[in-house]
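Box 3.1. Reading complex inputs
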Amino acid sequence: MTTAGWITMLTALLVVWGGVIWCFRKVLSTPQEEKAPIGFGP
Amino acid sequence: MASAQQEQWGTKLGVILAVAGSAVGLGNFLRFPGQAAANGGGAFLIPYFAALLLLGIPIGWAEWAMGRYGGKKGLHSAPAIMGLMAKGSMGRYLGVIGVLIPLGVSFYYVFIEAWTFGYFLKYLTGGIGVDTSAPVADQAAAASSFYNSFTGSSGDGVLFTGDSKLTILSWITVFAINMFFVFRGLSKGIEKFCSYAMPSMAVLAVIVLIRVLTLGTPDPNLPDQNVVNGLGYMWNPDYSRLGNFQTWLAAAGQIFFSLSVGFGVIINYASYMKRNDDVALSGLTASATNELFEVGFGGMITLTAAFVFLGLSGTAAAVATGSFGLGFSTLPVVFAHMGPLGNFIGAAWFFMLFLAAITSSLSMYQPAVALLKESLGWNHGKATGGIAVLGTIGAILTLWFTQGGAFWSTVDFWVGTFLIFVMAGVQIIYFSWVFGIDRGWREIHNGASIRLPPVFKFIMKYVAPTYLIVVFVGFCVQNLGSSISGAWASTGSRVAIITIVATLILLTLIVRAGEGRWRREGIDLNDTQPAD
């Protein structure tokens, strides 16, 4: 494997792993369910 | 009708995993590495990521937003939602393509899914009979012979008359599993299954990846056949290929089909989101998950394993046989060389492919189920039954006309490839130009926890449609001539064309019935009133 091959592979892996981790952290940090405020409604 | 159909995703994560499950399929593990290796190795990633940013993700966002917008009006089928976008009947009838694609593809996709399940069972019980003491050419011949027998490619009807009972039993099993989860419904069926299947698939992929990366140099007499050189076969960049239009075309095609944009599934799945659920982050996360499986696992496992045992010429020959040859004929030879763990790794590999396939096939039925419920007023059980009948008819044709794969490859080209370009083009043009990019941009950001860079507004209006048209023209120039002449060349391909046309007519009639029903119910079919 050439140096360019290593750089390409590691960059691509960094992008896809970094991307998926960033996205799921963001998704999981937001509330999963919206709950109606207590005390409102009929 | 609309008020009676109130299915929704249980969680925000659920819809992301379901869409990602739909996108992650056999192509991530089998097609991507072959395409990359044949088109410049690591250099392929440049046009690949360009197409991801300029084509795949923007059109995906448009589809997510359109789906959720339709859901706000109580509509879930692609024809009804496309009618809203286009403000008229033309969009509704073009939207029929958004049901035809997933349903038509399901006819043969479940057959291929049955191969993965059947191979998994074979590896659980001792493998497919590749003798590693024989010359490599004989091992490859044995694997190919099993593959041809299992898939019935030697002649029409052989699966019903020969000794390939495992193929039929595998198909019955996977079709029954599909129908069971579709019948269970969106949240209790598809979402629940994907919430277990996707993490399981990731775990299996990690197991296989670790095994492949620790293969070292299995044969000391062949020191060049090692893991590092195997990775080099896939990743060493050949930048001279970037000057070739074919490379850019292949990259755009790979992104396009991998992400399932224009497939008719995202628009349907997104319609079951809550009105303020985040489509921007959900779309991005589903795409990122797909890329992880494609680049992070598919790009690391398949060709590396083949290279270590088969060497440069053997791997190049395997890539030339195409995705299925690589996955079902070549890799069994590789697993046989892995020693005592070979059958376990083979079973893990094919079960992973099975999970990738079933999370995709489950998504193919839901758009048609939604259309039957919405257009004909059928309840969920009756609609699932209707789709089971159609799916069985399509599958029987697929299982019978197996000679040379003529039936399923014809459906794959016209429905699973050609029409996807058409559908994606129609969607992005309606979204950006008829619904309006400003309104669409607001719709994407409604409830979003991220702000998209403003440049994507320009990309969605101008770049993505132009890019798509260029790729589509290139695709037609490259493929259309031979595909038109081949469409009537064999019994299998002729039956496939008739099946496609018959299904199209049937779906169009259903949409016509639905149009009358929706008008009678006073639904705002042409989007004269904003949903919010």
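In summary: The interface with chain B takes residues 1-2, 4-6, 8-9, 12-13, 15-17, 19-20, 22-24, 26-28, 30, 32-34 of chain A (CB under 8 Å).
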